[in-house]
Amino acid sequence: MNDYVLLRFDDDERVLVLGMRWHTILGSRLDQRARQKARQARASHYAHAENSEAVGVVRLNRADRGQAGRFYSGALAFAAEHRQGVVALRAALPDGRAWVVAAQAGKVLTQSDRVYDTAADAQAALDELAERHGDDLTVLAAADIDGDAMPFAAMMGESSAQCLLKPCGWSLPSVPRPLAVAVLGCAAAFFLRAAWDWYRSGGNQALPAPPVDTDAAWSHVLGEFRNRVRVDAEEDWNALLSQLADLPAEVGGWRLASAQCKRVSQAGWSCLAKYDRVHRLATNASFLAARPRGWSETWQPMDAVVARFAVARDGHPLDMSRLKTSVEHENETITSLQRILPLLSAATLGEPSPVRLEAPRDEHGLAIPPPASMPVILERPLTLEGPLRSMFLLPGTLASQVEWRSVFLTVDPAAEPSLNRSRLMAGISGVLYAHE
Fold it and tell me: Of 360, 106, 349, which is closest to residue 222 (Cα–Cα)?
C-alpha cells in the first residue's frame, strides 16, 4: 500500500496522489462502507466519490502526512473526466517510473492506479487490461502523455472536491478484548480525575473561536474558483488554432501526423506534435537541424518523434458580470453554433449542472451552507470536431463564456475533402459556463 507517488504543483496547495489500491464495495450507505473498508486495510486516507461502488485506499507515511496541502486522488480525477466506455492511461512520472490508470463508466478499475518501475511493466499492465476488455478498451496514446509535459495539474478540474482524500481517523489496533477494556478503563479514570482537578481549580476556560462570516467565506470560495477558471476571448482560441495551422507539414524528412494541446492551469498551453519518418534518408539529426526553435523532442524510437512546445495564451478569470444566463445561451449561443453545424463532423453539448464548490468551514470545522445570495454557476461540457478551417469560424458568442481545455489536430493525406471533412481535421473541447 506504500508504493505511491505525490505530485505537487507551483502555486497550488493541492497534492495529487498516484498509486492507491482500489476495492469494490456493495450495499447501502456506501460512504460508511468505504470508510470501513479503508480502516480494515489499515489505510491512513481513502478516496470515494458520492454513490460510487469503488473506494481507493492508501497509507501515507508520517512525513508525507505532515506536509502542507490537501491530498487528491489522481485516479478519481481521471475517472471523473472519462465517464463513457473503458479508458486507460499510461503516463511517465518525473522520477522515471510510469503510472497506469483505467476507468470504466467513470469508475476506477480495481487493477489500475499502479506505479511501475519500468515502461515495460506498465505496458504489460496495459496488455492485461486489453485482454480483459478487448475492443471496448481505449488506450490513450503514450506519445500524447509521456514526458515532463504531461499536464498532471490539468487533471484537477472543478470536480476536484469529490477527489479529495479523507482521513480514516484513529482506530484501535487488533488487541485482546480484556486488554482493550482495561486500557480504556485506565484512560477513563485518568481523564475523570483530570476533569475533577480542573473543575476544583475554577476551570480556566479558553475563549471560544470567533464565528465565521458566512458571506465573506463563500465570497472567498467563489473568488478562488473564478481565478482558477480561464475563459477565452475569440483572439485567444484563434491564436491557439493558428499555432496548429502553422505547424510545418514536413521537417527534415519527417511528416506531421498529429498534434494536441492541453491547458495547463494558468500557465498557458502545453502542446505535442507527432512526426513520422517518411523519407528514407531522414535522421534525427535532419529533424533537429530543421525544426523550429524552442521545441524539445522525445524519439519513439526510430521512426517517430514527439515534439513539445508551449503556447502562452492563458485567457482571463471568469467575469460574472459578462457571464450569460442559461436562457441567453439557449437563445443566442446554441443558435450561433447550430449555424456552423454543416461545417462540422461532430458536436456535443452536455446537460447543465451546478459547479461543485468546496464549502468553507465554520469555527467548529463544519461545512457552511451557501447563503441565499450565493450565485448558482452552471457548467456544460462542449466538444466540436471538424476541418481545421471550420474551427476558425467558432462564433464570438462563446467569448468569455467557455474555458477551452484541449485541442487536437490529425493529418490524413488520403482523406477526400468535403464540406465537413478535410485532410486536416481538428477538435476542441472545454466547458461552457452560465448562471441562473
Answer: 360
Q: What residue has cell string 499502479?
A: 114
Contacts of 366 (CB under 8 A, 6+ apart): none
Find the distance separating the first CA and the last CA of the chain, reported in whole Å.
45
Instruction: Please compute the mean of the pLDDT values over residues 237-248 and round it to a whole number.
Output: 95
CB 69 within 8 A of CB 61: no
Q: DSSP strand E in 375-423: where?
A: 377-387, 402-411
Q: How far apart are CA 180 and CA 274, in angstroms?
A: 63
Q: Do 14 and 69 contact (CB within 8 A), yes or no?
A: yes
Q: Where are the beta strands (DSSP E) in 212-365?
A: 230-231, 250-251, 254-263, 269-277, 296-299, 304-311, 316-317, 346-349, 353-354
- Extract the C-alpha cell encoding 96: 522515471
Pair 355, 379: CB distance under 8 Å = yes
pLDDT (tens digit per residue) in 251-284? 999 999 999 999 987 778 999 999 999 999 999 9
Q: How many CB atoms lie within 10 A of CB 198?
A: 12
Q: How far apart are CA 188 and CA 328, in angstroms?
A: 63
**pTM for the model:** 0.55
pLDDT of residue 387: 97
The length of the chain is 436
